[in-house]
Amino acid sequence: MPVVLQAAELPGGYGxxxxxxLLSLGAVCLLAWVxxxxxxxxxxxVGGRGRHLEVIERVPLDARRALVLVRVGESVLLLGVxxxxxxxxxxELPPGELPADxxxxxxxxxxxxxxxxxxARGADGEDPG
Length: 129
What we know:
Elements: H1 13-41, E1 53-60, E2 65-72, E3 75-82, E4 85-93, H2 100-103, H3 110-120
Antiparallel strand pairs: 1-2, 2-3, 3-4
């Protein structure tokens, strides 16, 4: 005797399931946004600054290696970092050797960067270049 499988009906149909999925996704995104804002306010996570150590600039050389300028107290160190290897000291720089703009780099919020990008576009919404 063959077994016949019947499709189960969703209570409320597919529209209700889609609405429930979208509302759940929205709630998760809202919760993530609130937690990230709260963490940034109290300097939690990767972006937090230490009292004695500051990453001034990071320049990737390829997918696995980068050069990093780090301030440790009054010293500025140029380090080579790579995947699976300990950081290597390339050179210790005197603080006066760095240009002023690289030391005091301006950090902008995402909203400021987005507004600057929108301002760079033409009135018709296309890139000026």
